[in-house]
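Sample entry (220 residues):
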Amino acid sequence: MKKNTNQVTNAEEEASIMLNHAVSLSRAASSGTDREKIQALDSNLKLWVEIETTLKNAKNLLPQEIKDNLMKLSKFVERLTLSKGIHMSKSDYDTLVNINMQISEGLVQAVKHSLAREEAFSLLKCAIDLSSAKENNNTAELVSALDNNMKLWVYIKTLASSEKNELPQATRTNLIKLADYISSKTLEVGKNVNNLNHKALDSMIMTNLQISEGLMSNRK
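Predicted structure, serialized as tokens:
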């Protein structure tokens, strides 16, 4: 991870890196080609190798318990990635994504929260929940995931409509339009969850992934 004398900035950058890798992994698992999967897995592996190298540095001032836990996670990510590669199951990809998300969330909690980052994290989690419900063919999980995703987009629309929001006007306008789009798609999918409209659901998942990535990019 990058070194920086400003610890707050450093933590924010690391959280952004972890979250962006989670987005790439989730996207590769959902609809990526073999090449995209290899790129996402290789990039994530390199990130964790870099983390492991940093942890071994004598100048690293993290508490020993945290360093030990991160080292264990690093070894786990390395073993899983090298042993299975692109032949990973959806569950394996979700495991890698969740690890990155949890570490990112932990870093964010250590600094002043950013609304853009919180929204990006929530969007990614909803995308994973929707994807998992679809993969498991679980109606109850899907209904819950759709409801949570709808509530999130209503919240985002409210924030984007606020004059106090510091996002660019064009971004705010697009978020409001997307919130309306998600609402219509949610109603469309929810009307007949037993005869799932896969195209509409996939569109919602990809929208969440793209906006999550876009929010992080704008934050940079």
